[in-house]
Specification:
Elements lengths: L12 H13 L3 E5 L18 H4 L2 H4 L2 H6 L1 H17 L4 H12 L3 E5 L5 H4 L15 E3 L2 E8 L8 E2 L13 H7 L19 H15 L24 H4 L27 E5 L8 H10 L7 E5 L11 H7 L3 E6 L13 E4 L2 H9 L8
Parallel strand pairs: 1-2, 1-7, 2-3, 7-8, 8-9
Antiparallel strand pairs: 4-5, 4-6
Helix pairs in contact: 6-13
The structure holds ligand BV8.
Ligand BV8 binds next to strand 8.
């Protein structure tokens, strides 16, 4: 996947100099990382223009309710992201952070990203007994780890499963043919692939809002008309859209999805943290311990809209430990808890990070 080149305005030399002066003296450094770190690798973020949540109802593909309702749709969403991430390469920002980890043993990266790119740049993830000192904490999990959906009764885990496809129905061809969630229950995909439209996704969201209130998504049994065949919806169809738009279904049966090889009963799912699920307990404990330390010298907030909790609160927790804060983002409006004295470096992380980290962002060889 081509790396996207984004030109950035010149950084303020005085700001860079004062940041680097602080960096030299910093031992305990925390980075709070979001999808913007991987943008230069060609991976979509979540909430920006063209972001993932513009195309998918987040609660249909990244929540336990969405999984219970249609695990095939959830798997289609993650199968696509696995392929995109495997095709992408770490960009200079990933490499700069991996180099910083070698120069500064007190550096720890708290990443919301599940794309595996920091690992491929050389950072070693880990948490829990014997791994407390690992410098990469995967707050929201990893696309390439699979777990049994029965995490308590079975608990099967398969790490770094990069083989593609995971199963026939999730192959690129099969997913394209089923056009991610655009199939309607009972429709024979083979000869009549339906053509849903953005209008339909809007109608679905409107329906969810009408039924459920707000934008929370919980299971809704499909109504009788939900299976109604999709019609090619032209512009003038807006007015005629039925008030009960068909509920989208992947059309994938559970039997077609990967089954846990240990219990042979439940499905395998991606080991990622969905909305409404807690972050991995080991990581929560280590993050709490980190923010109970008496001194954090520097907090880098990189490529995140700081909208997802509890990660969105980490910057303030670092400040409470004495940290000075540096922001790296393309959008000033996303610097949620900016304070006087913070460093603000607006631009593509792929360009800015190597520049501000200087020698600390260069490999020790
Ligand atoms: C939980 C799955 C508790 C993996 C994701 C208060 C406290 C606790 C919870 C909550 C709370 N309030 C609300 C909640 C619930 C919820 C939440 O936060 N909701 C939000 C939306 C209000 N939180 C949870 O459910 C969390 N669980 O707290 O458990 C609990 C306790 C008891 C019982 C049950 C639960 C779980 C959160 C994890 C959700 N899973 N994804 C996946 O599919 O990837 S979240 C999703 O958002 C991704 O993981 C993503 O990483 C994360 C954050 O998004 P960002 O990375 O910031 O991406 P975004 O697109 O938003 O922004 C990109 C930024 O980059 C932008 O600023 C852009 O300007 C910038 N940028 C773009 N290009 C570049 C760039 N910057 C630099 N260079 C560039 N080139």
């Amino acid at each position: 996947m081509a790396q996207t080149e984004i030109t950035v305005p010149e950084l303020d030399a005085a700001a860079v100099a004062s940041f680097q002066q602080h960096l030299v003296q910093s031992n305990r450094i925390v980075a709070v990382i979001g999808a913007g770190l991987s943008a230069a690798s060609g991976l979509a973020t979540f909430r920006g223009t063209g972001g993932r949540w513009a195309k998918h109802d987040v609660f249909m593909v990244a929540s336990p309710a969405g999984w219970r309702r249609d695990p095939g749709l959830v798997w289609q969403f993650y199968a696509e992201r696995r392929r995109e991430s495997l095709r992408a390469s770490p960009n200079p920002a990933h490499h700069a952070l991996a180099a910083l980890a070698k120069h500064k043993p007190g550096f720890v990266a708290l990443s919301q990203n599940v794309d595996g790119l920091l690992q491929r740049a050389g950072m070693v993830p880990g948490s829990g007994p014997g791994n407390e000192d690992k410098q990469l904490k995967l707050l929201h999990g990893n696309l390439f780890d699979l777990v049994c959906e029965d995490s308590t009764g079975c608990g099967y885990v398969e790490e770094n499963k990069v083989e593609e496809p995971i199963c026939e129905v999730l192959s690129e061809e099969a997913v394209k043919k089923r056009a991610l969630g655009q199939n309607v229950m009972g429709m024979d995909v083979e000869d009549k692939p339906p053509k849903a439209s953005a209008l339909l996704f809007e109608a679905i969201a409107a329906k969810n809002k009408k039924i459920l209130g707000g934008d929370k998504f919980t299971e809704t049994a499909p109504t009788a008309t939900d299976g109604a065949p999709l019609r090619e919806l032209g512009e003038d169809a807006k007015a005629k859209m039925p008030d009960t738009a068909p509920v989208l279904h992947s059309g994938i049966e559970k039997s077609e999805l990967p089954t846990c090889p240990k219990c042979k009963v439940h499905l395998l799912r991606p080991r990622v943290v969905w909305f409404g699920e807690t972050l991995p307990v080991d990581i929560v404990a280590e993050v709490d311990a980190l923010f109970e330390e008496d001194k954090i010298d520097l907090c880098l907030v990189i490529g995140t809209s700081s909208q997802v909790w509890p990660t969105a609160g980490f910057c303030e927790r670092a400040r409470a430990c004495g940290a000075k804060v540096a922001w790296v983002n393309t959008r000033a409006e996303d610097l949620k808890s900016l304070r006087d004295g913070d460093w603000v470096f607006l631009g593509d992380a792929g360009v800015v990070l190597p520049e501000i980290l200087g020698v600390y962002g260069q490999d020790t060889g």
